Amino acid sequence: MRCPHCDYTEDHVIDSRVIRDGRAIRRRRECDKCSQRFTTYEYIEAVALLVIKKDGRRESYQREKVVAGLRKALHKRPVSIQATDEAVERIEAELARLGSVEIESRAIGERIMEELARLDQVAYVRFASVYRHFEDVHAFVDTIRPLLPEEDGGEPNR
Questions:
Q1: Alpha carbon 152 to its chain's center
Q2: What number is the average pLDDT over the span 148-154?
Q3: Half-sphere exposure of 90 toward its Cβ, with a 13 Å CA cutoff?
Q4: pLDDT digits over 14-30, tens only?
Q5: SS3 assignment, position 16
Q6: Per-position DSSP letters for 31-84, written without gaps between them
Q7: Could you give the CA distance from residue 119 to residue 24 in angstroms, rounded to a whole number?
Q8: Residue 103, beta-bridge partner list
Q9: Is the pLDDT of residue 100 over 60?
């Protein structure tokens, strides 16, 4: 484990707790070099999920990739880490409900977009603009149109 503050690799655990109905462990750690504290999570992997990439390759599901995608889209946006973690939990719970050992990367990306639309519209547009590889401005407008308020001044379409 690397300290997120100074990148040192030695730390010690201050506190451990079982969370998420026994499906994860939260650990508070303290860096042995800079004494900064940080939190890590360990998740129990129920079934090894394989992700089918666009080119047909298969690779193991990596939670860190989902977290990184969300955090990149949410960079400098007013969304808490807790809300981001809860979004990842919802995505993974839905993947588990599917009951399949393989899932297309496209389906994971679409689920991330649904969560981002719920959390922050700017983050949603950021992710969609990279994920969907817009060919022209019309495709971009079609993607953000559901976020715009209706003509009568009501809430955004969803």
A1: 34
A2: 62
A3: 15
A4: 999 988 777 788 999 99
A5: strand
A6: ETTT--EEEEEEE--SS-PEEE-TTS-EEE--HHHHHHHHHHHTTTSS--HHHH
A7: 23
A8: 51
A9: yes
Structure confidence at residue 73 (pLDDT): 95
Do 123 and 58 belong together in one domain?
A: yes
Distance of CA 82 to the CA centre of its chain: 11
Q: How far is the CA of 131 from the CAs of 14, 50, 108, in angstroms? A: 39, 20, 11
Q: What is the mean pLDDT of residues 62-80?
A: 94
For 145, half-sphere exposure in the C-beta direction (CA atoms, 13 angstrom radius) is 7
Indicate whether 38 and 75 sit together in one domain: no
Q: How far apart (Å, rounded) are the C-alpha atoms in residues 95 and 15?
A: 30
CA atoms of 79 and 85, how far apart (whole Å)? 11
Token pair, residue 93, equals: 């719970």
Query: Do residues 77 and 97 share a domain?
Result: yes
